[in-house]
């Protein structure tokens, strides 16, 4: 699904594997554009998702507001017995995660496949599909 | 021969998030002309935009918003950038740059990033008389 465009940020969501949803972001994430990411994360979690891959490989810039939205999304996913992973490869964006100390908290890796692998392993360790929805807030 | 006076570039912007990208582009343009490294340009973009965002969020609570000044001075040894507002001000002693980053997702990361990305940061402010955030990045030659 391609979301309506309100700024230079482009966001699309996809169902990767039934239990796993993705949000792909293209552009620059700052206090002006980040509310669009907030809306996407909130909507996908409200619809029942608990496992999220955030694809930031085409994001050129992120600030503390974008980080805050991802932290909040990861916490909500955790409350639903799920988790979040972030794929991002641009060195300046990776550096923001590292400097802020959020890289580990948000499972930040440089490759989308690796992000999916991380969540797949955690999902399997928590009982796979049988565990989905436990603790959910739908 | 006396040292050359720094080039000074000023932006005057409404305190509105839609101008954050303008700040980012301008800082990148000025910084890249000062001989700074590409990595340091990226650091400056984050730091100055975080300072501007902090001003937007906090400077004009309960007061009519006024223009925010971003002043960039490119010297031979460093790049000094000030974000100046005529907002409500605050007691700068409440800022603790040594505190660990707040990972609660409820804000508080912005000034932490400013401090991490710049070589020196000072905040001058008093309740009722605006705020001046002074950031310095030394030029790596």
What descriptive keywords fit this protein?
heterodimer, A: 138 residues, alpha/beta, Transcription Regulator spoIIAA, 4 helices, 38% helix, 25% strand, disordered C terminus, B: 141 residues, alpha+beta, Heat Shock Protein 90, five-stranded antiparallel sheet, 3 helices, 30% helix, 26% strand, globular
Percent of residues in helices of chain B comes to 25-40%
Which of globular, elongated, flat, extended, rod-shaped describes the shape of chain A? globular
Q: How many beta-strand segments of chain A?
A: 5
Biggest sheet character of chain B: 5 strands, antiparallel
Q: What is the alpha-carbon Rg of chain B in Å?
A: 15 Å
- What's the Cα radius of gyration of chain A? 14 Å
- Low-confidence regions of chain A: 134-138
Strand order across the largest sheet of chain A: 1-2-3-4-5
Structural class of chain B: alpha+beta
Quickly name the level 1 CATH class of chain A. Answer: Alpha Beta
What percent strand of chain A?
25-35%
Q: What is CATH's topology name of chain A?
A: Transcription Regulator spoIIAA
Helix-strand layout with pairing:
The complex is a heterodimer of chains A (138) and B (141).
Chain A: E1 10-15, E2 20-29, H1 34-46, E3 51-62, H2 64-79, E4 83-87, H3 91-100, E5 108-109, H4 112-125
Parallel strand pairs in A: 2-3, 3-4, 4-5
Antiparallel strand pairs in A: 1-2
Chain B: E1 7-13, H1 20-32, H2 38-58, E2 68-74, E3 78-85, H3 109-117, E4 120-125, E5 131-138
Antiparallel strand pairs in B: 1-2, 2-3, 3-5, 4-5
Helix pairs in contact in B: 1-2, 2-3
Describe the structure.
The complex is a heterodimer of chains A (138) and B (141). The radius of gyration of chain A is 14 Å and the shape is globular. A 5-stranded mixed β-sheet of chain A has the order 1-2-3-4-5, sandwiched between helices. Chain A is an alpha/beta fold and 138 residues long. In chain A, α1 (34-46) packs parallel to α2. Chain A has 4 helices and 5 strands. In chain A, β4 (83-87), α3 and β5 form a beta-alpha-beta unit. Chain B has one domain (7-138): Histidine kinase-like ATPase, C-terminal domain (Heat Shock Protein 90). Chain B is 30% helix and 26% strand. Chains A and B meet through α2 and α3 of A and α1, α2 and α3 of B.
